[in-house]
Design goal:
single chain, mainly alpha, Four Helix Bundle (Hemerythrin (Met), subunit A), two-stranded antiparallel sheet, 4 helices, 2 strands, 62% helix
Length: 146
C-alpha cells in the first residue's frame, strides 16, 4: 500500500478517524467514583458508545468507520466503489461535520463527570471535520474550470 496516494485531507481523516474510533471504543467519556469515608468503593467508566446518550456515539462511530473505509478502499486498493448521488468529497464533508455535531451534542447533553476521552474525542472529531473540509477544497481545486 502506497500512502503517498492519499491527499493531505484524506490522511487527516484516516488518521484522526482511526484514533476517534479507538477513543469511542476504549477511553472513558464519563467517569464516576463513589467514595465512602475517604475510600473509593466503586469506579464506573463509560466509553463514548455507552450511556448516557450512547446512540449519538454509535452513529458517530459508524459514520467515521464508513469515511475511513471509503478512503482506504478507494485509494489504497483496486476495489471499485459504487457511484453515489454526490461526489465522495461532498459526502466526506457532510459526514465529517455530522460526526462533530453528534459528539458535541453527546457532550452538551451530559456534562457531569466527563472523562478525558470526551475531550479527546471532541478534538479528534474536529480533526475529522477539518480533514473532510480539506478533502472538499482539494476536490474543488482539482475540478476543471467551467
Amino acid at each position: 500500500m502506497d500512502f503517498r496516494k492519499l491527499t493531505m485531507g484524506e490522511r487527516i481523516v484516516a488518521v484522526a478517524g482511526i484514533l476517534l474510533i479507538i477513543d469511542l471504543l476504549f477511553f472513558p467519556w464519563h467517569h464516576v467514583s463513589v467514595s465512602f469515608r475517604g475510600f473509593t468503593v466503586a469506579t464506573v467508566n463509560r466509553t463514548g458508545l455507552q450511556s448516557p446518550r450512547g446512540y449519538l456515539g454509535i452513529l458517530a462511530f459508524i459514520i467515521t468507520i464508513a469515511m475511513v473505509a471509503q478512503i482506504v478502499l478507494a485509494k489504497l486498493t483496486s476495489v471499485k466503489l459504487p457511484d453515489i448521488s454526490m461526489p465522495w468529497s461532498q459526502a466526506h464533508l457532510i459526514g465529517g461535520f455530522v460526526v462533530l455535531g453528534l459528539l458535541l451534542l453527546k457532550l452538551i447533553l451530559k456534562t457531569d463527570f466527563l472523562g478525558f476521552g470526551a475531550w479527546l474525542g471532541i478534538i479528534l472529531a474536529a480533526a475529522v471535520a477539518y480533514g473532510a473540509f480539506t478533502i472538499s477544497r482539494e476536490a474543488q481545486g482539482a475540478a476543471p474550470p467551467p
